[in-house]
Amino acid sequence: MSHGKLSPCTLQNHNKSIPLFLYLAHQSVHVGGGVQPLQVPAPLVGLYDTKIIHDKRRHYAPMVLAADKSIETFMNAMKKYGFDNNSIVIFTNDNGGPANGMHGGGSSNYPLRGSKYTLWEGGIRGTAAIWAPQLLQPKKYTGLTHISDFLPTLLEALDLPIPQGIDGISFWNQILTGKESARTE
Fold first, then answer.
1. Which has the closest alpha carbon to 89: 75, 73, 70?
2. Which tens digit of pLDDT belongs to each residue from 11-25?
3. Which residues form a coiled coil (predicted)?
4. What domain count does the chain have?
């Protein structure tokens, strides 16, 4: 079952008096294997054939659309089942896009140099968005963070103790105040 179908079922069937941690790892906009490394969902194959000239972008666009639709379904289910006012949702990625090379995906990391599989910023820097309407006002945070920082950040946001010796530094206060990142590396 796809993420787009499974996550709303999880929300529908969850006892809201018990905290829920739900991790959705969308692979739809991701390099796969085989002859065509960009795996377009079957119903969307050919959707942009007459609209996008660039071959790789023509395959990439329906994958982005599939991810968008899945996220839309999930966010609508959050509202439908009453999770929208008591949740923290993090949208993030694991690396820069495969903009060139053998798995070039039609994406762009501009203005950063490099892409997936490289150690330049275009390969290691990603974006994230945190949605928590009950806790945060919309703003842009440009501080340095690492994926290992999400655990201590979530713990601090929930006013839970952060265990000693874990990797990661909470950046919750920086999100709230706009102060510089606590990271120095």
1. 75
2. 999 988 888 888 887
3. none
4. 1
Q: What angle do CA 108, 67, 76 make, to 5 degrees?
A: 135
Buried b (16+ CB within 10 A) or exposed e, 31-42: beeeeebbbbbe
Contact 44, 66 (CB under 8 A): yes
Q: How many CA atoms lie within 13 A of 12 on its CB side?
A: 9
86 within a domain of the structure (yes/no)? yes
Tokens of 13: 């069937």
**Is residue 183 in some structural domain?**
no
Rounded to 5°, the CA angle 173-179-185 comes to 90
pTM of the model: 0.81
pLDDT in tens, 82-111: 998 889 999 888 877 776 554 556 677 788
Let me know if residue 54 belongs to a domain: yes
CATH number, domain at 85? Answer: 3.40.720.10
Structure tokens at 148: 């290992």
Q: Which range of residues forms the domain containing residue 90?
A: 3-138
Question: What is the residue type of 36?
Answer: Q
Residues 88 and 24: their CA atoms lie apart, in Å, by 13
| 90, β-bridge pairs | 130
